[in-house]
Amino acid sequence: MDAHATGLALEELDFRLKTVLPEEYRDRYEDVQPVSMGSAGLKYAADGQVAWNEMWKTFCDLAMAGGPPHKGTLLEPATRDEVNAHPDRYTEVVDEICRGVAMVTELIVRPSPRPGWVRVSCFSDAMAGWLLRAIVMENVSARAEGLALDLPASPHFRIEKEIKNVVTVAAKTCHYWLGHMPRTQKQTIAVLFDAMDKATPLIEPEWPDDGDHSSREDLAGTIAAAVHHETGLTRSPHCYRDWVGIECSNVRAAVWIMRAIVMCNVLSRREGTAVFVPINAASDPGGTAVTRAVTWCHGLAVARGVL
Question: Is this model's pTM higher than 0.90 or not?
Answer without folding.
Answer: yes
